[in-house]
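Q: What structure does this chain adopt?
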Amino acid sequence: MKKRMIPMAVSSADFDPSMNMIDPMEASAFGVIYARYSSHSQRDVSIEQQVKDCMAYAARNNIYIVACYADRHMTGRTDRRPEFHRMLRDAEAGGWSFVLTWKNDRFARNRYDAAIYKAKLKKCGVRCLFSQEYIPAGPEGILLEAMLEGDAEFRSAQMAVDIKRGLAYNAEHCMVTGAIPFGYRRTKDYTLELDPDRAPLVKEIYDRFLAGWKIIDIANDLNRRGITTASGKPWGRNSFHSMLSNERYTGVYIYGDIRTPGGLPAIIDRDTWLAVQRRLHTKKNPVGRSRSYGDYLLTGKLFCGHCQRPMVGVSGKTRPGKPLYYYYVCQGRRLSHDCQKQNVRRDWLEEKVCAMVAGLVMQDDVVEWMADCVVDYQRRHKEDGTLQALASQLKQTRAAIGNVMAAIEAGIITATTKDRLLELEAQEQKLAQALETEKALRPTYTRERVIFWLEQFRAGDLTDPAFRLRLVTTFVNAIYLYDDHLKVVLNYTGRNSSVDFPLVEDALDSGAVDGGPYNVETGPPQVANPNPAPIGAGFGFVLFLNNLGKIKPKSLSHFSFWWKLLWLRVLSAWLGLSVTGNRLG
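A:
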């Protein structure tokens, strides 16, 4: 019998393996906890409470926790979170199957980031679970999770509006709105005044820089004298840029677009500051260009229609010095060479898929049907065995309490009766709390709210990468690509949840194939095409004919034109088409 591998549990400031309520040998799965809070005004107990609730959730679901990752004072609207990225790196190493967070907004408040990082975890075989929000694993769960992510982003945006309003008020009164520049200090009224010890150092640094001192020499002199930066660190080459370019030292209060001359006590005069800016400008190095890498929107959802294996993103050049081209290639063809599916250009396919899906799912009848599916699923899910069992146990416990009370009223009062009553009352309280918790963990959305949420996709911009990612992540379950059509499997239940689309590339120019809308019950119309073009074979003969038909005789030599016309007539006769010289003109 193969011995079970148990991952090593790692202690941290917020977690100890002894906090687990189950034995690792009896656990059905292993997981980690991710906790986060963003405000300095919150207490550390916030992290502790998140960990406590996640540990209780893990115990109920027989999951053994092996590590905890916690980001303090880190907003969920950005992905610059060190512990979060350490968790992602550890997920690639394997050993655990679940990431437990308190709520969906602890993982990320930005839908784009949430989709990207959940997809990365999914590739590692890791699923996200939320101790305070129940999200099922099926297709309906994808829609519910997307709605929760939207709610989290809305709350975050609303909070940001309130914070910005307060900061704008402070800025109008020249009050502190963030970090205090070196040389100033905060007053009791939250305005800025000169720091008598550091303000002269700012003027000294400006004067030395204008006198020709090197940055490193200024830093070495300050360090030798025991003077540190505003954060208490030694001075270095990069310690002076923000100081030497900060216009606030001339007495201008700056916050965003708000500029208030005289809002601060000045440390240096305007002419000195401008002279420093001219010297800084002459010392600047050219800004390096960041390299652009290809992103593949359909990775993990795109499969070969011939061999059913995944299609992955690749890139390559025709020759050195030429730009990169991006494709999707069948893994069967790429690795084992036993599939004949040709490569497909990434940009063309992604544009086609997004247009088709948007056209299909944004029909009024489809939106209403999907809303009905979600509401029906919620109704069925609320009637599942867990809720019924808890309600039944609570009913039985209350009946038992009634029996004991009846015995007491009849004069049967003993120590056993009293202990039994206390035991039943404690059990009643526990079951009532468990029932309320179970109900709260299952988000309930009305049909109107689901329709309102789905209709937000109507205003989406198909050229926006973030919207395209949301569209594919929310609605597309899988795509099977054939030579002349593709099958899209959508994330909702009911019959006909997969739709076939004809796929001929020249339709992008000619309009022969409409990307939508299609009726979900009948499927898309089948376009009558006398010469269907397999994408794998150079993307179709029809495209070649259309492009050739745009060549005018005056751009060719007389000899070249008539040879091309003769060759075209031969091919057209074979295909049963009628082509004359007038078409070329």
